[in-house]
Amino acid sequence: MNTDLAELVNKLQATLSKMEVALGAIADAVVFLDVNSQVQWCNRAFVQLVKRSHSTIIGSQFRELLPLAQAGVLIEPDTYPDVQMRKGGYEVAEYEFIQGDRTLILQISGSCTGVAEDKVAVLTIRDISDRKQTQIALADREFKFRSIVENTNDILVILTPEGVIRYISPNIINLTGYTATEVESQSFEPFVHPDDVHQLWQAFNQVASTGEKLSGIEHRVRDKDGSWRWHCCNISAFEDTPGNWLIAIVGWDITARKQTEDALKTSQARLNKILSHTAASIIYYRVYSNREWHLDYYSPGSALIFGYSTEEMIADNQLVASHIHPEDWAVMYQDCFDKIFAEQTFEHNYRYLHPDGNWRWISAIFTSVWDQSINGWLVTSICTDITDKKNTEIALAESESKFRTIVENVNDIILITDLEGVIRYISPNLETIMGYTPSELEGQSFEPIVHPDDLPKTWDAFNQLATTGERFSGLENRARHKDGSWKWFSSNLSVIRDTNGNLLFVSVARDITERKQAEEALKASEARLNAILSSTVASIQHVHVYANRDWNLQYCSPGSELVYGYTAEEILADSHLIVSRIHPEDWETVVPKIFDSIFSERPSEHEYRYLHPNGNWYWICYNITSVQDEAADCWRVTIIATDITDKKRTELALAESELKFRSIVENASDILCIINLEGIIHYVSPNVVSLNLFEISTVKP
Prior knowledge:
- There is one protein chain.
- This protein is an alpha+beta fold.
- The protein is built from 24 helices and 29 strands.
- The strands form 7 sheets. A 5-stranded antiparallel β-sheet has the order 2-1-7-6-5. Strands 9-8-12-11-10 form a 5-stranded antiparallel β-sheet, with helices on both faces. It has a 5-stranded antiparallel β-sheet with strand order 14-13-17-16-15, with helices on both faces.
- Helix 6 (129-151) runs parallel beside helix 14.
């Protein structure tokens, strides 16, 4: 071999050695297969993947070293990537590979070289298991978040610092009549009572400036029909992205509570799955002990990573380094050189300012070896864009933060149980409402804390949910407080699946103990009232009267039958039954007065004759009170009617007696005089004048 040829061979061997070092440093597994799918060469990553020695790998069948499956089923030999590549019909695909007790997700790409009969396949195998698991976790978190938001009785609202509604949960339509699309991107102010807008702005500014959560802010919200309803909310602030603060509001309707006090007494979470794969950048350069370096090679994929052509990057030794974030460069500079000089393999993640103006996250793996010929180190750097992974991790962390913000602010207890009723998760507000800490109940069956009488219907609801998968609303049952008392809850139920596909029940439970107590008190009050009314010889009626002088009977007491001769049911069935039997003369005179007193809201009393079903005319006394109800566009009238026939008869008899008495006295020849025991004259008959005795005025006291 002549000198030139020997030098050429040495250079070729040196180049091959460098390329082998570079390929060996790549995190992806690389393998060369002959036309029979036997391994001709592989890098260190492939050896680590199949967990076989290099010597046993060379010459082995690829499918024996790497059994591939899709959807849990091993693929056929003629569908292996290298076979399809030789046929010219292969696209990058994902496969499953069982490595010990782990199932890896591998992404395989590659190409073929050579003539048709002797094509060599070069495969690049990338382990994307971690990325897949992160995506699954993100999707699971998204599903749980949406399940809670859509099942809770509260309204979740996310505002910008300017008060613009960025997100509102779908159940807004149930509480206010508006759809989410009608409200989103609008200012919150038109939907809040003008008197309450200022206090909400104060609350928003306070949480934004202090970071503290505010609870129990009460305000009025306008329904779509124009009416006002009372809401109470908890307010907190969070960062959507670094430096971008948003206001989170969890509100619930307290109108019923407000009315009860007066009378007796809803992540955003829009998460994006970022699925991206970019080619790696392979960089080969020399590093010297004075911490200077010289770039020798950039792979074509480097342009996709760094945004500059390979020629531009080789021409400017500092081009890429000058775009690394100063904070990251300060950490990397000392550490990188120390480990290069120690010939350690290491990894650094750093932020890189891409020419498109965006910061990207780059992962760089470094390997180094001392080369006496250059009196320095030969360094190989494999760089990949991990921006998607970082963004996914940040999104997952933000999702977790939003999830916890919602769970910790809602008034409902959020409970996740498995099919056996074992509590897998329970929200922290359990301690406030029920006295237990979450750790006291998690891992335990829910049965011991549910009232025995309510267990059957609770299990029936869970079984129905497991069978149909449809949401179950309004399950009411009792749960035992830690102090031994029983509290009433109303729950909405839905199903989700965990990352392993297991069915879970999500319960969003609201404490309705006060409502139940109020209902019981109302029932007792109504029972007492009915008992009183049943024993009262009077007709008590509640009537809605309208401006057109029409009316609608709402209630008639049992005593009405004693007054009118018809049952309460008969009277309610025919609003004109009673008035049709009022004496025509009385109807003409009484009706105008009745409507005048109702519309002016003046209490009044009227008398009329009523034709009883027994054929007799009865006298009825009619007491009326009224109050206008603008919401119902009517007057609510209470009528108390009593039978005064006996009284009327007595008055008539008395009048007749008086008339007879006067007739006798005035026609008698005698003088009638009434004197009390003190001698005072109380009465003297008129004929005292005709007898020329005295003037009547002179004898009267």
